[in-house]
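Why does this matter for the project? Reviewers at the last site visit asked to see concrete outputs rather than summary tables. In response, this paragraph embeds two records directly. Each consists of the residue sequence and, immediately after it, the corresponding structure tokens. Nothing has been edited or filtered.
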Amino acid sequence: MTNLNLKENGGLFENLTPKEIVRRLDEYIVGQDKAKRAVAVAIRNRWRRAKVAEDFRDEIIPKNILMMGPTGVGKTEIARRLAMIITAPFIKVEASKFTEVGYVGRDVESIVRDLTEIGVRLVRNERMHLMADSLKDRVNGRLLDKLAPRPKYRRAPTPEEQERVDGEVEQAERLRTRMKEQLEAGKLDDKTVEIEMSDRSPKVMQVFSSAGLEEMGMNLQELMGEMGGGSPKKKKKVKVGDARRVLFGEEVDRAIDMDSVIREAIERVEQAGIVFIDEIDKIASSHSKHGPDVSREGVQRDILPLVEGTTVITKYGPVRTNHVLFIAAGAFHMSKPSELIPEFQGRFPIRVELSSLSGEDFKRILTEPSNALTRQYRELLAADGVELTFTKDGIETLAGHAERINMETEDIGARRLHTILEYVLEDISFDAPMETGNGKPFELLINSGFVENKLKDIIADKDLAAYIL
């Protein structure tokens, strides 16, 4: 049995209530309250499970979620933001990219191998950030030894030499103090130093396995180094800025206990991992006994053991999927959830339907989220001295055109706003930076008239609009 600890005690799960999780999701995602509530409860249940008596804990399995709704309404974003809120290993895969065992294509167990790799990177980066200040001090010390080395003497100085030696040492320390200040300020980044560097270039080879062709990155140089007692090093002259990155990587490798990182990463994957399987409707079968439906049903049967709970062998060790949360999503335009095999349907007991976005939703998407599109464009063009101001009627016009085009053509949800905004701001993005002559930012008002003027030729021709917008 795994001894789970709660986040406040340095363990896995933070004490986030469902309302708090939904509030944080609301900062980035407009609407889709049912889906947010479903994922919030699923995450809270992990915290609740950690509070259950250990002998009963393994009996509680996650309630996996099936999201149904058109593209661009926030299915992927909900899962991705959720993983960021709880700092959980997260992976998004497309069901249509996998094939049944026996066919040439990706093996479904690679989902767990990739998720474990993400978990290891996540834990390693967390520890690296915790140690960042002390590691930077070590790196600066090593660089100082190259830029301003302390004087070395082959023998102890005689009494007559001691005064001279003390003066040299004192002078060297003063120089190191000045160099340290300049080094920390980045003023020496273009200066050249000579350091010893390991040959870390990875040698990638392809390995045939029983499950098909898998690409595995294997650092043969590292493998040979371990067998031979260490990686070969060579001296190389580089700039201080580049040397700092190399030395920082070496200090991270020395300071971080990778065995401990791997143990924590596997535990986090097993107890808090999230797998988002998109395009699940693409592998729904119409129950014919020939053609591509045979392979689609086979993919479902291959994914099923992962969802039910199995053990996958990774290069870091065995990983159990019993308590990984699976979120499946699909538009289900051409198929229905009932066309998935019964065993697969049964493993996704929570089903939520995400609604299409309206013009009011588009207005909120353009203004309310912390990463709203209008803010993104303001920040981008501000770098070139352009100050964008989106007026209320300008926002309404953008939202109205997005809603109408989605209704007249293919409904791609909020992604339509990306297309329209990019077209409306194409000229200003190309012409920037623009001089005002008085040193002030170039101000541009994005109102209804500006938007209509940019779109009038395309809107008038529905066929052209279908191609461009």
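We now turn to the second protein, recorded in exactly the same manner.
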Amino acid sequence: MKSSILTAVSLAVITSGIALAQDRPQPTSTKPDTTIARPAATKSLTVSGRVSSDGQSLVTDLDTEWTVSNADVLKGREGSLVTIKCYVDPDRNQIRVLSVRAAQPEPKIAARQSDSAFRR
């Protein structure tokens, strides 16, 4: 009987000690945090749009204009439709181009009257 009570009490003390150890507050620093900055984008995004005439910006299908941080990548593609893989910085309304390829034109679909879809 005495050993079971001693075991129960020691188990309660150990369990509460473990619980307190997990909830230890982090030490506060006395220095002001001046390095608060938005982290760089880690996922790339694929965007389609038209390169501006000067090659410095991209106008997307939704009529939003993005400034290109590395505009030399778009050199020679002024005024053309492109698909760009890029990192986006929405705070500065800026993109960093990773890769560029010409946009594929939408396929023209033609239907024939003799197709089975038009039969009833």
